[in-house]
Design goal:
Layout: E1 7-9, E2 12-15, E3 21-24, E4 31-41, E5 44-47, E6 51-56, E7 60-68, E8 71-79, E9 86-94, E10 100-102, E11 104-109, E12 115-117, E13 129-132, E14 138-141, E15 144-147, E16 152-154, E17 160-162, E18 172-177, E19 182-188, E20 195-201, E21 211-217, E22 224-226, E23 230-233, E24 237-243, H1 248-260
């Protein structure tokens, strides 16, 4: 669906040489490079670093990779319903005789991959990398709550988890250049049980714009489990790149959700799906 003032940028999918997922534009200078799926068990990360699969830049990618003995991850990347980007869905395949308990999962760049890349950053460019998230508009230290600014901020000077459970923020992260018009965005495409957060920090490795990983977490202290001999479908993430003022991302994101979810009629899902209330963000 065409939206006035918002221009989605073309991204293709491929399996990277580093053993991860590439979501890049034709110039290979905009998008995500070498994203690897990981499963967190306590402080340990099991990473899907190698595997077998098929990729097609038009129809998507299907990839199966081992995490540990008897445990693998199947990834699929498919065009989003409204055609503005890609939806990536991981599935845990537990071939063991016992269940597997885990504390989180998400995506992080491979050791030799750049992760998010942007043509207006790096190589001596004076541009400043900024990120946008609804949490930037809210300050809360109960019983006091007030609106805060700005929406776009430089990277935190120490690692910060963006979108912590309990904040009720729209699960969408924006990356780009201050005063720019070209943006990367990623957000939760489903949120049945798990909440999407991001770990952001200044870059620690040469060749990267930032230290970055996404992680799905949940409220409460219990672990999630993958049953023995079965498959567990995890939450999906939406990835896109676009040209517009930064607030245009919400029109694009909601357009994708509206195309994929039924919000009215006999098949509506509001009785089973989260409903976002943004009153406390003064929007």
């Amino acid at each position: 669906m065409k939206m006035t003032g918002v221009t989605p940028r073309e991204l293709g999918t491929a399996i990277s040489p580093e053993g991860g997922l590439n979501l890049l534009d034709p110039s290979a200078e905009l998008g995500w490079q070498g994203l690897q799926f990981y499963l967190r068990i306590g402080t340990q990360r099991l990473t899907a670093r190698s595997g077998e699969g098929q990729a097609n830049s038009d129809r998507g990618i299907h990839w199966l990779a081992d995490l540990a003995e008897g445990l693998s991850a199947r990834l699929s990347a498919a065009p989003s319903p409204a055609g503005n980007g890609w939806v990536v869905t991981p599935v845990l395949c537990n071939r063991r005789r016992q269940e597997v308990s885990f504390d989180g999962y998400g995506f992080a760049p491979a050791p030799n991959a750049a992760g998010p890349i942007h043509p207006e950053l790096g190589r001596g460019s004076p541009g400043l990398l900024v990120y946008g998230h609804m949490n930037n508009l809210r300050y809360e230290r109960l019983p006091h709550c007030r609106v805060t600014y700005p929406f776009l901020r430089p990277l935190p000077t120490c690692e910060e988890q963006i979108g912590q459970p309990g904040c009720s923020s729209i699960p969408l992260l924006l990356l780009g250049v201050s005063h720019g018009q070209l943006w990367l965005a990623e957000g939760a495409f489903t949120e049945r049980r798990h909440l999407l957060t991001w770990h952001l920090d200044l870059p620690r490795e040469r060749g990267r714009l930032l230290s970055y990983s996404s992680e799905f977490v949940w409220t409460g202290g219990g672990r999630e489990t993958a049953p023995p001999g079965g498959e567990t479908v995890l939450e999906s993430i939406f990835f896109c790149a676009f040209s517009s003022p930064p607030d245009g991302v919400y029109r694009l994101y909601m357009d994708e959700l509206a195309q994929s979810q039924r919000f009215s009629g006999p098949q509506r899902r509001l009785d089973r799906e989260p409903l976002y209330c943004t009153w406390h963000f003064f929007t």
